[in-house]
Amino acid sequence: MTRQTARALRLTVFVGESDTWHHRPLYSEIVHRAHAAGLAGASVFRGIEGFGASSLIHTSRLLSLSEDLPVAVVIVDTEPRVRAFLPHLDDIVTEGLVTLDECEVIRYTGPGDDPGPADTKGENSL
Prior knowledge:
Structural class: alpha+beta
Number of helices: 3
Protein name: DUF190 domain-containing protein
Distance between the termini: 16 Å
Number of domains: 1
Largest sheet: 4 strands, antiparallel
Family: Belongs to the UPF0166 family.
Shape: elongated
Strand content: 35-45%
Order of helices and strands: EEEHEEEEHHE
Radius of gyration: 17 Å
InterPro entries: N-reg_PII-like_a/b, N-reg_PII/ATP_PRibTrfase_C, UPF0166
């Protein structure tokens, strides 16, 4: 097993579970756009409780069921690729919060995996 490290940028988009884009969940639209843009990966995490600009607390507890739980879409790739993707969010995220965090990626590859070309600057691939 080989361990590779690289610098990256983490993009997190916080939206509501009930937010939609053309009758499709907004989080799903973000993931599909990230995939189409060729980004390294995206994951969606559903929150169990939270509040945002509305100051309303949304929770998954049984006695106060919510249909608009917080959702976080997390995308990690190189900084240039993430920044190039940001305009794809402009027309679909009408309410929400977007954060960018520098991070270090540790990628484990097996003996048969092709890690791709080596990139000493960490700008072209993860």
